[in-house]
Amino acid sequence: MDLQRVYLVGSGSFLPGDPVPSSELDRVLGELTEAPAAIQRFVSGAGRRMMESSGVECRHLAVHPETGALTHTFTDLAYEACVKAMDDAGVAPNDIDLLVLALPSYDYSTPPSSAILQEKLGIECCAEMEIHSNCSGVGKSVQVAYDALRTGRYRNALVAYSQLSSVYTRACYFNQAKVTKTNATLRWILADGAAAMVLRGEREGGGEPGEGKHEILGTYVESIGSAKPPAMSAGGAAADLIHPDRQIPEVYAEGTHHLDQDFAAVARLAGPTLLDGLVRFTDALEIDSSSVDHYVVSVPTLQLFEEGLPKFCDRLNIGPDQLKFRSAKCGYCGGAAILIHLDQMARTGELEPGQLAVFHSVESSKWMTAGFAVRW
Question: Which CATH number fits domain 1-376: 3.40.30.10, 3.90.226.10, 3.40.47.10, 3.30.1330.30?
Answer without folding.
Answer: 3.40.47.10
